[in-house]
Write a structure and sequence with these properties.
CATH topology: Trna Endonuclease, Chain: A, domain 1
Strand order of the largest sheet: 1-2-3-4-5
Number of domains: 1
Number of helices: 3
Distance between the termini: 41 Å
Helix content: 25-40%
Structural class: alpha+beta
Number of strands: 5
Largest sheet: 5 strands, mixed
Shape: globular
Strand content: 25-35%
CATH class: Alpha Beta
Order of helices and strands: HEEEHHEE
């Protein structure tokens, strides 16, 4: 087995663990998880959750050495892909009371940080 494939598996494992941790944080806050790793023609969304007010939250999970790097890791092209994927997800749903884009940052030796309304689809 190559080092590259071992590294890829390790990254995949860390990513799945981070998403499960982020999901737990959202559940503790009272969110209902609607989807995990949702894929459609536009892209993938790590988590889709609904808060107590009925707002659908499209959540990107990032693990980095510090919070600033985690937030910066959500690039403009990635935000655009997530926004398009969210648009497709919302297209057939009429029970939605609003939507927003959140980021959950996971930094070693710190509590997860939930950044609500981290960006708007029309932002560059």
């Amino acid at each position: 087995m190559s080092i590259r494939s071992e590294r890829g598996r390790s990254s995949e494992h860390r990513g799945r663990f981070a998403e499960k941790l982020a999901e737990a944080v959202l559940r503790i806050k009272g969110y209902r998880i609607l989807a995990r790793r949702m894929r459609n023609a536009a892209g993938e969304i790590d988590l889709i959750a609904q808060n107590l007010s009925g707002v659908v939250c499209f959540v990107e999970v990032k693990t980095r050495p510090d919070t600033g790097k985690a937030v910066a890791a959500v690039s403009a092209p990635q935000r655009a892909r997530i926004s398009r994927a969210a648009e497709i997800y919302l297209a057939g749903r009429q029970d939605v009371r609003g939507a927003r884009f959140d980021v959950i940052c996971l930094v070693p030796n710190r509590l997860p940080r939930h950044i609500r309304d981290a960006w708007r689809p029309d932002e560059p």
